[in-house]
Amino acid sequence: MKSPSSRPAGRRSRLSRALSSRRRHPLAAIAVLVAVLFTCGGAYAALAPSASVSTDAASSTQIDDGKKLFAVGCASCHGLGGEGIVKEDGTVLGPSLIGVGAAAVDFQVGTGRMPMAAPNAQAERKPVAYNDEQIAALSAYVASLAPGPDVPDEEDVDPSAGDVARGGELFRANCAQCHNTTGQGGALSMGQYAPSLTGVSPKHIYEAMITGPQAMPVFNDETIPAQDKQDIIAFLKSVEEEPNPGGLGIGRAGPVAEGLWAWLIGIGVLIGMATWIVTRSSKS
After folding, report:
1. Do residues 97 and 84 touch, judged by C-beta distance below 8 A?
2. Which residue among 5, 173, 197, 221 sits deepest, i.e. has the most Cβ atoms within 10 Å of its Cβ?
3. pTM
4. Is 28 within a domain?
5. CA–CA separation, 224 and 169 (whole Å)
């Protein structure tokens, strides 16, 4: 007869043998892999930040209206499903809009850059072809195709909540290479250009930063945080409000440009007078 102390040891031995046999089962590795995948997926779904998608607030009616508008005014270049159209020779007639988000549509259509009359090196700002409700519907439809940047809230683009001095530093460090130190724009390669930011609404400036239209890079919140974007907007709006004492903006570079212009004109007048005096002296 076995002693009571030997019984638990025998049970543990049988249990270990059973577990060992299960570990050697051909499906054991697959079962462990599936369990790990489910655990990681559940943890990611619980902890990962949710993507900003405008379809949360968009109604099905608004999306349907946007789909109809898209089929009439956008599908000829971007495809009925926003997948884009590429010709046989590789020419991109219209890029894919899947994942660009509502912010990209609101910027492109809200500034009149879209729809384009014909493909070109760069879409130019022109009168807007749609009203606010239609733009919102188009934005909702494109946002329903895949997650992407949403249209910013009013408090996110309020210039009065930004730091003008810090915004100037950020703008000169990240934007002045293309847009000039005061946002007046400049020429780029391949027929493209950085447009002037004078008169552009704060919302569209913010949307341009988070979507990267044309040759502009994307400045997401990891690159430039939301508060820094607001500071940049505050700086640009403060530059717009500055007067031009000399009458002309001359690139809004301040008294340096005005002084240089006056110097060049003054030198030109002096050279002209000297030439006139020499000519008169030689004749006499």
Report:
1. yes
2. 197
3. 0.69
4. no
5. 13
